């Protein structure tokens, strides 16, 4: 099945589905092997992996290069965190065309201003996009896609900005009318109360995506009861790798040998397996002249 169709089915299925964060080809492959049906190409994680901030410091074509490796390494669909679409409607629709060329199944854009800042950094001070301008962006993106199953998710930042439920619903409804396939409602509260209130009023008008990074203590079954379509585990592979690398680098620096390092890390054979070394060995037998 096409990756776009896989993602569309995840978004529209009656069950609660999950996307797991990845930020390069290797992490994308690990997410697929763990059993996930889809990948969140997190802007935070991709930028952090580049050693830069989540403020559009990477150009969108640099992000695209990372995505190409992620897509090539996997057979499950990728939803790109496309920030604000990297400009106006024209930049956003060109992004869609380029994503389709690279077999990326969908993109999520948020109603903030370029260059964006991560929602968990002074969220309440962040200005939101004009509603009509953002709707034009959604329409341009939907008009541009050549594959009817390519997914555009419209992310509502009204709760992050402290503008309340009414503004969130107003925006969600406008984005639905503009043609979004789903809305992502974001909240930085440590409980799911804002999400609960939104779901009650939204009443299933369009699939809803959430990012429970801050309200992670809410039982997952509650999200299912609320009728949420997709929950995104948004940055956890990045954070796991940071902790693992910090511990290991300090250990090796301190001990100036590898004796205690070896047991806690992946074997070299595991690295080779993830890279697909066996496939190349087989291909060499087939295509290189016999010795
Ligand atoms: C990301 O993963 O980059 C996201 C989710 O956009 S959040 O960091 O919660 O804004
Ligand atoms: Mg992001």
Automatic annotation (TrEMBL):
Give the record's keywords alphabetically: Isomerase
Pfam families the record matches? PEP_mutase
Q: Which SUPFAM superfamilies match?
A: Phosphoenolpyruvate/pyruvate domain
Entries under InterPro entries matching the protein: ICL/PEPM (IPR039556), PEnolPyrv_PMutase_core (IPR012698), Pyrv/PenolPyrv_kinase-like_dom (IPR015813), Pyrv_kinase-like_dom_sf (IPR040442)
| Enzyme Commission (EC) number | 5.4.2.9
Q: Which NCBIfam families match?
A: PEP_mutase (TIGR02320)
Q: Which family does it belong to?
A: Belongs to the isocitrate lyase/PEP mutase superfamily. PEP mutase family.
* Protein name (Swiss-Prot/TrEMBL): phosphoenolpyruvate mutase
